[in-house]
Design goal:
About 50% of the residues lie in helices and about 20% in strands. By secondary structure, it is α+β, with helices and mostly antiparallel strands. The chain has 2 domains: about 60 residues; about 90 residues, General secretion pathway protein M, EpsM (Gyrase A, domain 2, 2-Layer Sandwich), CATH 3.30.1360. Strand 3 and strand 4 form a beta hairpin. The longest helix is centred in the first third of the chain and has 44 residues. The chain starts with about 20 loop residues before the first helix and ends with a helix.
Length: about 190
């Protein structure tokens, strides 16, 4: 049993701390300062946005109050009429381009007797013609003219049928084709388009 409080080992002095700051502590302090600076920046930015929103609201209310109801009502009605006119114009048909197309592409030896223009839907526009040709050769040349590459964008599926000789020596025929809706669009027929 030991009765003495004196240690048997020699007492070794511990070395004093060098007094330097650890790297972890330094990084923590820097991150803390950056976080506080960013929080302050966000707060200032939020306050500036709130202030700008309030200014814009006040400007909008002032602009709204500057317009009189008597001025706005006719302008709104005029806008509605213009929009309705645009809709009507886009749906309106002009048959005159078909006549121009026939005028330019029907040969001199061909005489047209009747024309029937059928509009069943916006993509189904049909033209039926009947007429007389001087000869089968003229009718063949007319068939070639209607099948020309330049006309294919306007005339779709041209068919010459029911050709028969008449008592006066001419050849009666029927011509049927579909027409591209863009050809008969009134909007496209306007001079500025």
């Amino acid at each position: 049993m030991q009765t003495s409080f004196i240690p048997k080992k020699p007492v070794v002095e511990s070395q004093p701390d060098s007094g330097g700051v650890s790297l972890f502590l330094l990084l923590s302090i820097i991150l803390f300062i950056v976080a506080i600076a960013m929080a302050g920046g966000v707060w200032v930015w939020k306050q500036s946005l709130v202030s700008q929103i309030e200014k814009d609201k006040a400007a909008l209310v002032a602009a709204k109050e500057s317009y009189e109801e008597d001025t706005l009502t006719p302008l709104i009605r005029l806008n509605d009429r213009i929009e309705e006119s645009k809709v009507l114009l886009s749906k309106h048909l002009a048959v005159s381009p078909v006549f121009s197309l026939l005028e330019q592409n029907v040969l001199r030896n061909i005489r047209l007797k009747t024309m029937k223009f059928s509009y069943t839907s916006s993509d189904k526009i049909k033209v039926d013609l009947s007429g007389f040709a001087v000869s089968y050769e003229a009718l063949s040349k007319q068939s070639d003219a209607f099948g020309d590459v330049n006309l294919r964008k306007f005339i779709i599926g041209p068919v010459i049928s029911d050709f028969n000789p008449t008592t006066d020596g001419s050849i009666a025929f029927n011509f049927t084709t579909s027409v591209d809706p863009r050809l008969v669009s009134y909007e496209n027929a306007l001079p500025n388009n």
